[in-house]
Amino acid sequence: MALICSQHFFGGSEAFLLTVMAYDRYVAICHPLRYTTIMNQQCCFSLLMFCWIGGLIHGIVQVVVMAPLPYCGANVLDNFYCDIPQVIKLACSETYADEIVLIVSDGLVTVPSFLLLLVSYATILAAICSRFGKGGRKALSTCSSHLMVVGLFYGPIFFVYMKPSSDSQVDKMASVFYMVVSPALNPLIYTLRNQQVKGAMGKLKNKCQCLLLLQRE
After folding, report:
1. Would you list the DSSP string of the chain?
2. pLDDT tens by residue, 128-164
3. What is the mean pLDDT of residues 25-47?
4. CA-based, 20 to 30 A from 199: which of 5, 32, 158, 163?
């Protein structure tokens, strides 16, 4: 139960945080002159607190639904960690109503967040096409890393949690991708957009080329 709560606490917080980041990019691109006024320290702190409190409520809801179920049978999960679709199968009672509650709970976090993301980027694309012209490529490139992380985050979630009764082996791959691959790629995706990292990679590349030339000579 602690693992389930922490998993959904951090997952829910990340879903809200990705939405807040999309809003931040919308303000930066569509209202650049008012950015420092809108996204002031108090606003950023309030948005961050909303992300953490929303994630905490989401994690607690999962435990409130799962903990009272009678687990009197097998205690072996058909997965690599304590994921809700597999844990709920261990209950010795009818769990249809509980699955519906969990689907609704997950949907209330992921669907509105995802729709807000789509609205934010649709507005950004419309602004870029109408105002910036050719210079819009640079503005859009600032959103590329965030869009990649959004795809890695929401893809496995919609695949796994929108059908919790499935026992497909593909669900295991999606779960591992969500828990391991996506978090491991996040730092790489964001750091490759950093100018200092790009500069360091360029210097390393030049040194490697020089060493290869010296060895050939």
Report:
1. -HHHHHHHHHHHHHHHHHHHHHHHHHHHHH-GGGHHHHT-HHHHHHHHHHHHHHHHHHHHHHHHHHTTS---S----SSSS--HHHHGGG-SS--HHHHHHHHHHHHHHHHHHHHHHHHHHHHHHHHIIIIIGGGHHHHHHHHHHHHHHHHHHHHHHHHHHT-TT---HHHHHHHHIIIIIHHHHHHHHHHTT-HHHHHHHHHHHHHHHHHHHHHH-
2. 776 655 555 666 666 777 777 887 788 777 766 665 5
3. 88
4. 32
